[in-house]
Amino acid sequence: MDAALEAEIQQKYTVETITDMKRWTDKLISFRLTRPAGFRFAAGQFARLGLPLENGGQAWRAYSMCSAEYDEFLEFYSIVVPEGQFSSRLARLQPGAEVMLDKRAMGFFQAERLPDGEDLWLIATGTGIAPYLSILKQPEVWQRFERIVLAHCVREAAELSFQDEIAALREHPLWREHGRKLQYLPVVTRNAPEGMLSQRVPALLQSGELAARAGIEMSPEHSRFMLCGNPKMVEDTHRQLMKMGYRMTRQNAPGHIVLENGW
Predict the structure, then answer these.
(1) Which segments cross the bilayer (predicted)?
(2) What percent of the chain has a predicted confidence (pLDDT) above 70?
């Protein structure tokens, strides 16, 4: 390898190996990478992953970590875009293939940015559930809040990935005494199974149906919200919450909402 190229690699990114690839549907995959010893991140942050292109260039995309801060691997969840420059190539890879990993984790989508409250609402569409899987592996999150609601909105029921993993979170030995606090609310907007929530999240907030299904009364005094996923959902949900009296958390002004809109 050219010495200059090797120096660039060592400075900006590492080359990691896929150790596991899971195909949830024909459009959804999750995968694990080896984790370099020096890589650090806070639950809720994302990493930039890269693949070489046939023309000699590189394609990079941002993915939130699903794995815990303390895991020995890095796990990610991705939608597969047909003919996409990155994800369609990624989906064809098998364990043993290599992916570039930017050395720096990025983002400020962290539960620590919210002031204390009684209820933490983790609202996601599609692959936006990924950072919550990492956040829910932090013992302090379970200790800070009395109730935690994970609402995952998808189009088809087959897209409700990680259900077994979510159920297992309640029994994790690091916070088993708090496991009862977690409530999982799946939302399916097309052909929803009987009894399942089936409207978009902003509509469920406006009607009060989301709170009613959780059995929790929302209020600015007690409720805190994290929003992640489709930019339209994030924008519309943010607007609806503002109408209900909630406000964004700012650097010097703690509020009720933090969001991730980096798609």
Answers:
(1) none
(2) 95
SS3 39: coil
| Residue in this structure with the two tokens 């519309």, named with its chain if needed | 236
> Which amino acid belongs to residue 178?
H
Does the pTM surpass 0.85? The reply is yes
How do beta strands 28-34 and 73-79 pair? Answer: antiparallel
Q: What is the pLDDT of residue 139?
A: 96
CB atoms within 10 A of CB 199: 17
Q: What is the mean pLDDT of residues 73-84?
A: 94
User: Where do the structural domains in the chain lie, given as residue ranges?
Assistant: 3-106, 111-261
Residue 251 has pLDDT above 90, yes or no: no
- Beta strand spans in 89-181 (E): 98-102, 119-125, 147-154
Cα distance between residue 231 and residue 262, in whole Å: 8
The CATH code for residues 111-261 is 3.40.50.80
Up-side HSE of residue 95: CA atoms within 13 Å toward CB? 9
Nearest CA-CA partner of 150 in 175, 133, 173: 133
Task: Decide which of 8 and 131 is more confident.
Answer: 131
Q: Which helix (H) or strand (E) holds 73?
A: strand 73-79
Task: Give 9-40 pLDDT, tens digit per residue.
Answer: 557 999 999 999 999 999 999 999 999 999 99
* Superfamily name and number for 3-106: Translation factors (2.40.30.10)
> What totals of helices (H) and strands (E) does the chain contain, helices first?
8, 11
